[in-house]
Design goal:
single chain, mainly beta, seven-stranded mixed β-sheet, 118 residues, four-stranded antiparallel β-sheet
Length: 118
């Protein structure tokens, strides 16, 4: 079965840093586009960042310059380094894996909570 397991969430003060990980199993990781969504209470779900199988990143305007997405194909793991965190970054962060075949496939992780508060 396919599994995406997020880790690294927690409580951090404004201006602090956190590193999220997404460990994938059951897929050929190196051919998938990977990414992170987040959802905060009362807000729309937001696509935070993606990274293609070739390593090309893309970011939402709200996190540009502060977050860095990366992947380690040998470890089947994707990362999100979050710096200069703000209270508005508080959300549940979800890992996704996309394979845009003729019939597109998307897998979701269970989410990890990030809380930015003093």
């Amino acid at each position: 079965q396919v599994q995406l397991v997020e880790s690294g969430g927690g409580l951090v003060q404004p201006g602090g840093s956190l590193r999220l990980s997404c460990a994938a199993s059951g897929i050929t990781f190196s051919v998938y586009t990977m990414g992170w969504y987040r959802q905060a209470p009362g807000k729309q779900r937001e696509l935070v960042a993606t990274i293609t199988n070739g390593g090309s990143p893309n970011y939402a305007d709200s996190v540009k310059g502060r977050f860095t997405i990366s992947r380690g194909n040998a470890k089947n793991t994707m990362y999100l380094q979050m710096n200069s965190l703000k209270p508005e970054d508080t959300a549940v962060y979800y890992c996704i894996a996309d394979y845009p075949h003729i019939t597109p496939i998307r897998y979701w992780g269970q989410g990890t909570q990030v809380t930015v508060s003093s």
